[in-house]
Amino acid sequence: MANVTLRNVRKAYPNGFEAIKGVDVDVADGQFCVLVGPSGCGKSTLLRMVAGLETITSGEIDIGGRVVNQVEPADRDIAMVFQNYALYPHMSVFNNMAYGLRNRGMKEAEIKTRVEEAARVLELGTMLTRKPGQLSGGQRQRVAMGRAIVRQPKVFLFDEPLSNLDAKLRIAMRVEIRKLQRRLNVTSIYVTHDQLEAMTLADVLVVMNGGQVEQIGNPLAIYEKPATTFVASFIGAPPMNLMSTRADEIKSQLGSAGDAGILGIRPEDFVITDQTPAGGVALSLTVEAIERVGAETFVYGARAQDEQRVAATPGELPPGEVIVRIPGTEAPAIGARIRVAAIRNK
Ligand code: ATP
Can the keyword Endoplasmic reticulum be found in this entry's annotation (predicted)? Predict the structure, then answer.
């Protein structure tokens, strides 16, 4: 069993900067955990601490029931896959995969068995004699995965492994990694700043901001019920519409005077309609921009001047702007006045 547990983990760099400010995370055996957050939030630092590449200032990291704070990286039973692949250019695919095993003094026969098995799983069987320079980006990425697999680690650690790939390959490799992880059933921790990658890969999603965990849980549960405005605007694209319940138009509909909070409505939860549904919220918008992306259309509308928006967080819309996501390609004209409505607490 290889669960990974972080208990009140902190990291202060030698210059005094506190990059991790007390983080608790539990990853169960075989689970896929994704650390997501904006640049500088500390996700790589946290992953490197699990790997043993960065010291732990305080708190505990436990892998498979053993506190590893003082354990060398090589003895942690983990394998890390990096974004730059870190392949040896002069070595064949076979030797790239075999390298770590030879370093450990494993017998050649066993190395051959392991490399060939990994190559089969990764569909690299016909490429074992090639050099990395003779491979595509996706194939190189698979060799990097192969190097991790042959070690048969208890835990895989991924540091933005797909960020050097083009958009199409990224999606293909994302699906590959998930299938592979399910098949091998190895506990995994994956770092990305891409919220879509995070949503689609994670069993457990950890949303980080400023060295702290903002929210942790099932990705869809986080999407449905973001705990903070940061999470609400970071998870989901286009971002959730966040509006102050003090705004005149909204306050009058909510009814409860002094109910000063934030109302969050996902773009897909609005419909264009003149009706105000029971228990719903309706807004008047002037259409400012339209984006057609094929299966759906994003309508950007401006709200009335008197409405205030909550303080901007990363990924948030400019004040007074609302995004409505509608299926298909039919959309109102730019400049049109429209009414949109959403059911509250759906
Ligand atoms: P990115 O997505 O840009 O890689 P990240 O979330 O992985 O970001 P980290 O690399 O973990 O962020 O860095 C977290 C914070 O710690 C950043 O503010 C960074 O500037 C700081 N930091 C990283 N390494 C050091 C260091 N050696 N000394 C001081 N501060 C550091």
Answer: no
